Amino acid sequence: MNRITSLFKIRYPIIQGGMAWCSGWRLASAVSNAGGLGLIGAGSMQPDLLREHIQKCKAATNAPFGVNVPLMYTQIEEVMNIIVDEGVKIVFTSAGNPKTWTSWLHQRGITVAHVVASSKFAMKCEEAGVDAIVAEGFEAGGHNGREETTTMCLIPAVRKTTTLPLVAAGGIGTAQSMMAAIVLGAEGVQIGTRFALTYESSASSVFKEYCLRLNEGDTKLLLKKLSPTRLATNAFKDKVEAAEAKGATAQELLALIGAGRPKRGMLEGDLENGELEIGQITSLFRQQQTVAEVMTEIIEDYERISKMRYEW
Predict the structure, then answer these.
(1) How far apart are alpha carbons 170 and 19 in whole angstroms?
(2) Tag placement on the chain: N or C end, fewer CB within 10 Å?
């Protein structure tokens, strides 16, 4: 037991990232049933759909689970009220000021964690009174911090600035990376990419199969004039990269992206024109697994490594 497992009432300090288009009720409930903390990703859901996923998750697991809410969500008041109405007790917030909703959620008995990409924002989290911090490094898939700080540098820096329970994220998907994060000062890990590629993920099977063939260097952080986003290589990513190289403005990039790109790529499997968000660590994996298989592998490997003794 440590502060993360105690805080969220889970067996293992492993949290599944609340990823848009990947983190539905099947994935969240599977991770929670395996002893971690599953998160439903509200970022890609209309309020009524989120309610449906919460209800199905409650029916599929008796273990704790939570909801990840990007604070830029346009219908956030409705979403927060649904979370309260449905009795969800854990909320992870991201992409915004943690002061906005933390007190409101606390008043309703909800535990709050907030995702940051820098020590500066970690200190703001402590000022806002959040219960835990997720420090996410540059390696992560999808929306990312502007600082481009790697997880190995970010975790010890954040640890120096806050006494709050700390979760490491970004480039973590194995027992080895989990142990490295804990040695650096984290008390738990948040895993996105590896869970996005499991059978229970709501992402398209075409998208998953494509990501399982990616190699080192096949993802890149782009769209820095908008919201920095790590994208896998495809025709759309090449267009974005070419536009940025020519000095495209934020407005021009918005016009290039248009509407529905992430849904087309990750949910519908449009590998040419969709937005394919995935982390750097995808290049380590070549085989699709169930959530139970992933959890068992990480836990058994972690226990094995913990017992090893090195001679110097």
Answers:
(1) 13
(2) C
Which residue carries 């979760």 as its tokens? 167
| pLDDT tens track for 97-146 | 999 999 999 999 999 999 999 999 999 999 999 999 999 999 999 988 88
Which is nearest to 233 in space by CA: 250, 216, 246? 216
Torsion 161-140-96-63 (CA) sign: negative
Residue type, 294: V
Q: Domain check: are 175 and 254 in the same one?
A: no
Query: How many domains in the chain?
Result: 2
- For the entire predicted model, the pTM comes to 0.95
Question: What pLDDT, on a 0 to 100 scale, did the predictor assign at position 311?
Answer: 53
Q: Rounded to an integer, what distance in angstroms lies between the CA atom of residue 236 and that of residue 243?
A: 11
Q: For the stretch 88-115, what's the b/e string if a residue is b when 16 or more beta carbons lie within 10 angstroms of its beta carbon?
A: bbbbbbbebebeebbeebeeeebbbbbb
Domain limits for position 256: 205-281
Clarify whether residues 55 and 108 are in a common domain.
yes
Query: What letter would DSSP give residue 144?
Result: -
User: Which residues lie closer than 8 Å to 254 by C-beta, 6 or more apart?
Assistant: 226
Longest dimension (CA), the chain: 58
Q: Is the dihedral of CA 232, 233, 235, 237 positive or negative?
A: positive
Distance CA 41, CA 39 (A): 6
pLDDT given at position 237 = 97
Residue type (1 letter), 262: P
Q: Are 125 and 71 members of one domain?
A: yes
The residue ranges of the chain whose pLDDT is under 50 are: none
- What is residue 309's predicted lDDT score, i.e. its pLDDT? 58
